[in-house]
Amino acid sequence: xxxxxxNKSRSGNDTxxxxxxxxLVLHGPNLNLLGRREPEIYGRATLADIHATMExxxxxxxxxxxxxxxxxxxxxxxxxxxxxxxxxxxxxxxPGAYSHTSIAIxxxxxxxxxxxxxxxxxxxxxxxxxxxxxHFSASATGVICGLGIQGxxxxxxxxxxxxxxx
Length: 166
What we know:
Shape: globular
Largest sheet: 6 strands, mixed
Order of helices and strands: EHEHHEHEHHEEH
């Protein structure tokens, strides 16, 4: 089942807020287990911890942020397609294992033409050989890997800088 990892940061009726830049953070399969799953690789922070940090950082810059996690490829694609009609200006995505197996998710990202940054908590290039290639990287604005959860913060900062430049 797909689930938002935090509340949308908007009131819905305030026209000033509805004009805020919007960033969507997508988390792929098994990232709902952060904090418990292989802490020696992924650390002890939970997905809720990551969302809270990113939300505070975004709100301080006047940007709305929404996080969404799913173990289902189809639900991630549906969320990406919906983002195109919702005014999402940038996507930060940790596709998890879909990095190495999915053609459909990067196709959806290219299809909606929303710029995105690919994030990986671990250094995928220092792990098993099958993890060294990502189907997302070639069309990503940038790729951040191996910096732990700080990679999400750096990706958000880069996304915000791009939005402000636009």
